[in-house]
Amino acid sequence: MLGKKAKAEAMYNEMWKTSAQYVRYYLSLPANTFNTNMSSCAMHLQIMYQYIRANEQNNPQWANAHNAELMQMLKAYEAKGGKMQ
Questions:
Q1: Based on the structure, what is the number of domains in the chain?
Q2: How many of the other CB atoms lie within 10 Å of CB of 18?
Q3: I need a surface site. Which of 33, 37, 65, 83 has the fewest CB within 10 A?
Q4: Does any domain span residue 38?
């Protein structure tokens, strides 16, 4: 079980890193370009939220640590005019 948990955490870390890179990229865009890519940014934020949900029971430390990062990105997204549905 321990080896599988470590493998799962490594997998989630890699997937998180990919989505976080996309979100940071979208958030760095100028307003008009961001507006045309807003739905893609929202999609990655939702994916990241699902990663947190998937880890809440089995790896709550991971979920809590990443939730703080997600909340910062979500605030930045909303500051640029993004709305989550």
A1: 1
A2: 13
A3: 83
A4: yes
> Cα–Cα distance between 1 and 14 in angstroms, integer?
20
Q: Is residue 70 assigned to a domain?
A: yes
Q: Does residue 64 belong to any structural domain of this protein?
A: yes
Span 18-34, mean pLDDT? 97
Query: Rounded to two decimals, what is the model's pTM?
Result: 0.91
Domain that holds residue 60: 2-79
Assigned token pair, 40: 């893609």
The predicted pLDDT at position 84 comes to 85
- Give the 3-state DSSP-derived string for the chain, with helices as H, strands as E and coil as C: CHHHHHHHHHHHHHHHHHHHHHHHHHHHCCHHHHHHHHHHHHHHHHHHHHHHHHHCCCCHHHHHHHHHHHHHHHHHHHHCCCCCC
Tell me, yes or no, whether 71 lies in a domain. yes
CA distance 55 to 76: 24
Q: What is the pLDDT of residue 2?
A: 55
